[in-house]
Amino acid sequence: MKYLLWLLKAAIFFTLFAFALNNQHDATVYFFFGTYWRAPLVLVVLAAFAGGLVVGALGMLPGWWKHRVAAAAQTPAASEAQSPATPVATAAAVATAAPTISATDLPAVRQHGL
What we know:
The protein is mainly α. The protein has a domain at 13-90. Helices cover 65% and strands 9% of the residues. It has helices spanning 2-22, 41-82, 87-97, and strands at 26-30, 36-40. A hairpin with a 5-residue loop joins strand 1 and strand 2 (36-40). The chain is flat, with a radius of gyration of 28 Å.
């Protein structure tokens, strides 16, 4: 399995390398007010990809921040609820809270002969 992953990574690398070698022609990107950028096509594609990553990460930032604030607000309340309990009582609560699985809850396993 390890060799298969290395083979896949090598195939992706050589595909991207061949793409870069085949797209060395100059491309011109026109901006506002008559400004432009002239660079090899592979750099233009790479810049567009990097810009998309940045815009995507910035778009996800408010959600990450909201979840981080919610997790930080929840942590002190959870630790205060557990701090008065003794370790023995906590272990007993964990042992009794664990669900039990009976043989009827498990799916039937079918054996197929070769």
